[in-house]
Here is the input.
Amino acid sequence: MSKTAKQYSCEFFPPKSEKGAENLHATLEELAKLKPAYFSVTFGAGGSTQEGTYDTVKEIQEKGYEAAPHLSCIGGTRDNIRALLDKYMNLGVKRIVALRGDLPSGMRDRGDFNYANELVEFIRSETGDHFHIEVAAYPEIHPRRPTPRRI
Here is the structure.
């Protein structure tokens, strides 16, 4: 059995202010010294930081580091996810973090995808093997799940 070298990533939230952007620049340069495999960038609930995510990913890529934008099912349509995938492919992004996401309070339209596996299948059908897809899972049961058993 071969041993795979451990890798890690660092996660950023898109900055919401000029001061936040300055902090991100400084932090990116400092963390880059640790040589993470990539820098992931969060995607706000219901797509609330979608433009900020794109701008942050673009900056990271332009500085020569690998970025992995988060994509969330919640509020995502096939059309807007397809458009984001195209934008990220044009930036040279090779990695995506596909998540179900949390439904923000008051939001009723979940979008076209209910679970992350549906989002992953869509990404694959649209882009083939272009992206390395990361996913996340709860180590125990999901907080909304009544039992660990499959229903």
The chain has a mean pLDDT of 86. Residues 36-135 form one domain. The beta strands are 9-12, 38-41, 67-72, 95-99, 132-135. The CA atoms of residues 73 and 113 lie 5 Å apart.
